[in-house]
Amino acid sequence: MAKKRILLKIGSNTLTKETNHISRGKIEDLGVQIAALNEEYEFIIVSSGAIAAAKQFVKLDNQDKDVFVKQALASIGQPHLMRIYNENFKDLGLNTSQCLLSYSDFEKEQTKKNIVNTINVLVKNNYIPIINENDTVATDEIRFGDNDKLAALTAVLLNVDILIIATNTNGIYTKESIHNENPETIKLVSDLKSLEKEIGESKSSHGTGGMQSKIEAAAIAKAASIETWIVNGLNDNFILKALKDEIPFTKIV
Ligand SMILES: Nc1ncnc2c1ncn2[C@@H]1O[C@H](COP(=O)(O)OP(=O)(O)O)[C@@H](O)[C@H]1O
Ligand SMILES: N[C@@H](CCC(=O)OP(=O)(O)O)C(=O)O
């Protein structure tokens, strides 16, 4: 039977477990789950974390709020990020590869074909593509996006079965439940307009796009009949548990 495809988007917040360091434990947690699901699912990862990785090792002589400083940090941190993935995944028998993409790559037929061809060869040969924005040439995601839109565009291009966006909440909560300080997850939804009404302005410590960018990503996926799952990536085994419906998360169909 053909394997199902999962596109997993993981942000800096989850990867650092809300600290200032990339968490080897979280990367190992991802690897353990991918290895456990290897017979049934193939994985493509969209991972942020390049800037967070750089900040672990260097301090540049500039204000890091400037976009071009963030770009430089991403350039320094990306190879470290990949090294950490590599080291942890190798021990679990998983191979990794790096793909750097930007929105404009999704606008031209030839570059789209190139992406699909490359990634299909990688996946077929049991290499897990780890995608990030090419931050030297593009600034969309470091400015606004959380890599959520890049993940959705990639999910559609690669015709995945499920887009999983890992974040730091148990999916999307109702506005009222947040207000009452007793967050309640909206478990299943297909009307994105009604969902938008539940979204607040707040963002996590490393976050840029908030829940809004995840809903926009879900809209892109939905238009291609791909389900989006918004899952709490801070939990150990969050993919396995979501697949078994053992944790609360939001499924957008
Ligand atoms: N209705 C909602 N339910 C859950 N979280 C929400 C909601 N509205 C806004 N948020 C905020 O969105 C944040 C997640 O987005 P973001 O900070 O960009 O995280 P990430 O780095 O995982 O992409 C949550 O931590 C929360 O502060
Ligand atoms: N591409 C950059 C940042 C992208 C971004 O802002 O994403 P996120 O960490 O999900 O809020 C990086 O890898 O650090």
TrEMBL record:
Single GO MF annotation: glutamate 5-kinase activity
Name of the top EC class for this enzyme: transferase
Top-level taxon in the UniProt lineage: Bacteria
Chain ranges of the Aspartate/glutamate/uridylate kinase domain: 4-232
Catalytic activity, EC: 2.7.2.11
Catalytic activity: L-glutamate + ATP = L-glutamyl 5-phosphate + ADP
Binding site for substrate: S48, D135, N147
Binding site for ATP: K9, T208, G209, G210, M211, Q212, S213, K214
Gene3D superfamilies in the record: Acetylglutamate kinase-like (3.40.1160.10)
Keywords assigned: Amino-acid biosynthesis, ATP-binding, Cytoplasm, Kinase, Nucleotide-binding, Proline biosynthesis, Transferase
Subcellular location: Cytoplasm
UniProt main location, coarse: cytoplasm
Involved pathway(s): Amino-acid biosynthesis; L-proline biosynthesis; L-glutamate 5-semialdehyde from L-glutamate: step 1/2
InterPro entries cross-referenced by the UniProt entry: AceGlu_kinase-like_sf (IPR036393), Asp/Glu/Uridylate_kinase (IPR001048), G5K_ProB (IPR041739), Glu/AcGlu_kinase (IPR001057), Glu_5kinase (IPR011529), Glu_5kinase/COase_Synthase (IPR005715), Glutamate_5-kinase_CS (IPR019797)
Protein family: Belongs to the glutamate 5-kinase family.
PANTHER family: GLUTAMATE 5-KINASE, ISOPENTENYL PHOSPHATE KINASE
Chain's role: Catalyzes the transfer of a phosphate group to glutamate to form L-glutamate 5-phosphate.
Protein name per the record: Glutamate 5-kinase
